[in-house]
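One chain shown below:
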Amino acid sequence: MATSGFGVTLTLTAPREVYVGQPFTWDVFLVNRSDHARKLAIVVIPKRKAAEHKSHLSKTSVSSNAASQRRGIVHADAVMDENRLYALHKSNSKDAVQIVCLSTDVRIGNLNPGFCHNTELKFLPLSKGILNVEAVRVIDVLTNESTDIRDLPEIVAEERVTDDKE
């Protein structure tokens, strides 16, 4: 259970078992504990890989290049081994998506003080293992207030075991 900064309590309930390629849902229970009506929306924020620190090749500035050419010094362009170039290219490729939220934008509508609402967030796991969602964002559409809920259920997707004995 998590309470947002603007008086809305959100409780998420997840299934115990999740299988790759099989959609599952989180049950979302919202309670408006504030003293005025809220018009709410829920958006799932996907997990993004942290930006890695990558080094880059330094280049000679145009001004220093021109100055060295006036003095008769000519610099050759840097040469890079093609294996290193290929490795750098491969390391820049995007990671495959592990989980997709099928409930892109859930609109709750008006929620009066003391009232509650129950809804679902639907997901599709695409790979096995521990899958992460960055946050569930609760937005009050009337005031543009929002809060990110980061204490979320753990998602561990498994391959479905099938018996092919006939």
